[in-house]
Amino acid sequence: MTQVKKARKVILLGWDAADWKIINPLLDSGQMPSLAKLVENGVIGKIATMDPPLSPMLWTSIATGKTADKHGILGFVEPDPNTGNVRPSTVTSRKVKAIWNILQQNNIKSHVLSWWPSHPAEPIDGVCVSDLFSKKFEAKSTDWPLAPNSVHPKELEDLFKDFRIHPDEITPAHIIPFVPNFEKIDQEKDQRLSGIAKMLASLSSVHNVATWVLENKEWDFVAIYLNELDHFCHTFMKFHPPQLNGLDDELYENYKVVINGIYLFYDMMLGRVMELADDDTTFIIVSDHGFHSDHLRLTGFPDDPAAPAMEHAPYGIVVVSGPGIKKDERVYGATLLDITPTILSLFEIPVAKDMDGRVLGEIFEETKTTEFIDSWEEIHGNSGQHPGELREDPWAAQQALQQLVELGYIEKPGEDQEKAAIRISRESRFYLARVFLSTGRIEKAIPILEELIKEDADIVRYGLRLAMAYQQTGKPKEARRVIDALRSKQKKKTDLPQLDYLEGSLLFSEGLPRKALEYLQRAEREVSHLPGLHVLVGFVYLKTQNWNSAEQSFIRALELDPENARAHHGLAQACLRLDKVEEAIEEALTSVGLIYFQPAAHYHLGEALFRFGEFGRASEAFEVCLSMTPGNRRARFWLVKIYNEKLMLPEKAQVHESFIANNMQGTINVISGLPRSGTSMLMQMVKAGGLEIFTDEQRIPDENNPKGYYEDDRVKRLHIENKWLHEADGKAIKVVAPLLQFLPPGFKYNIVFVKREMQEVLLSQQKMMGKKNDGKTFPVVLAEAFTKQLEKAEIWIKAQPNARVLYIDYSSIIENPISASIEIAAFLGNDLDAEAMAEVVDGNLYRNKSNTGSI
């Protein structure tokens, strides 16, 4: 495929771990003038990271627009297929094309410098310097060779070799901006100055190559990745103001300006790159995640090989500035997966449908039409990828591995390399499971986690993720089994809050919010610093309609983490129910600004805007909700109301009315069984649980049903006329077993079918009709007739692809109402309050017990 038009030049700068919390004060004080120029003349925003937040995985997703299960990079290290040992993740393990490979197939001249991972250097039609280029240090007195295969084309090796800066070349003048009183530091006891020298040397080496390429090579696209900011943060963020409690005063004074210093150094390098670009250049600066710099900084790490990644904040930065880009604007809801599609759009190249990101179309001054292609993997021709598996230089791999060990990202492999490879393989599979979990593909994660548990049941994080996966897929029994096993193996007190949190979450999903609150509050007492815990407590309060407590929980979460999108969404809902409509709008907007793909948050934003009288904006919010979840009936009904009654746009209302009529007849919850089998009690239960029931209330309670019948008289004529049935959409309706067969097609049915011993059913029916019975005998003919009706009903249910059924025994409800309520709530999937359901079960009304058993 040949590229049609070169829209402009693009420089992609990867600033690993860059965070607005550090940048904004520096911008405000005028200390980052180069970045300020791009910000003022472009679009900025927060960009959501991905789980797990491990840099090689994330930067490969940025470069491909695809999740890790597709691109194949699953952590910092990987087993070496040739030796069975462990090696750093290599570019040869990437399974798909990167942006520069696609650009090459469209005649776009690209250069790639130090991307992670990019070793061995790819043979692109341009310069490629791998991530190992600046990482190999030896004594300056030696020859100091390059890492093999770290430079392409090979004829540039000698030139680039001299561009490198050795740590020994870093002088006190270079250190002073970072550590003004460096002379007071005993460098034999404190090796941090040596670390600064190594990081500055590595950073400067890449910058030297980048400026040479920009000055001496033709280019349309240049990607430059700098990871030293992340390394500085892992080492020195603990010393950044404000001073942490318990931190030594002398250490704080020595290193408190290091973090600001490295940001200023980055801005200086950016300024030089900007000088070498022309006016046709679009700059994109992106970080794969942020870095906690406030009260969320960790003072210790759990037993987890990737524990340092817990210092990463969930939002990085994105800056886009150049011709055709909006000025001094913000972009909301960006993700790492959006960078590659947006670059393709800048070059007017089709975006692949198998990419997981989107074009950030809102950044452009003029609307751009995005063209699509099924997959760039199917387009043949020279893409600059490696032709096949290459033999990795073991020494170079070992050097990079040692650096990862020193940074604390991975454990130091033991003498038994085979065991180390097994351990790394397990972690890679665990990361893959987390990718599936974080992208909603839970069913793919479960078998991986189950296998990991079989291999090593003592690793708590495997079990915690598996229990969560079971819970999210409606398998509470399996989740309970895992939680119980974890409790039995609990070795550390620090595991208890996690288990209590998980137990509370499970109980909440089972419809037991009050019981869940007991566990969650116990966890809060142990780990009150976790925002996610307060968020879950807030949603429990929402469920129980305790709006004020919900509001306070979400506020507490946001005090800990002001950028928690779920907390903002929860607070929006609480404010909405407390009639604080303006606050609800603000919180919902903040939530979708942090994470755009939140259909429920857009829905509640629409509801709040409607109540505020902003009908046009409300319609926009509901339309966004539908773009993400087209099956949201409530959003469509809102739009019909807005377009017909408020905006006077009947043609738009018709779109949604037609969709509802043709495709969205909805789901009806049917309570069924033989007459007098307990269907009225079931209707009472689901009503108490929070499900709206469908009844005309014409039949009043009597001595046979003192709590009411909850019927609608039209059901009796269901075999004659059923056009009214759409009114029961989303509600619970009582339909006795003989009438089930007359339910029309076009709806989905959730049928809760109550079974009761036949003798008890007939005794109850006879008593209701005023007939006497000794309780020992009953009409055999009637029993046979009703048995036939049950058989017909079951046959009809089995033949309906649009019907699902839960059979439940009346006696089991009476004997164990809470267990039965949990089962019913889980089946109906309406977040019902199982505790409230169980409370309406009255065993005293079980007045027609069988003496002879069932037939």
Describe the structure concisely for a colleague.
This protein has 33 helices and 20 strands. With 855 residues, it is of the alpha/beta class.
Between the first and last Cα atoms, what is the distance in angstroms?
Answer: 74 Å
Largest sheet: 10 strands, mixed
Could you tell me the strand content as a percent range?
5-15%
How many strands in all? 20
How does this structure look, described?
The chain is α/β, with parallel strands linked by helices. It is built from 33 helices and 20 strands. The strands form five sheets. Strands 1, 2, 5, 6, 7, 8, 9, 12, 13 and 14 form a ten-stranded mixed sheet that branches. A four-stranded parallel sheet has the order 18-17-19-20, with helices on both faces. Helix 22 packs antiparallel against helix 23 and helix 23 packs antiparallel against helix 24. The longest helix has 25 residues, at 192-216. The radius of gyration is 32 Å and the shape is elongated. The N and C termini lie far apart (74 Å).
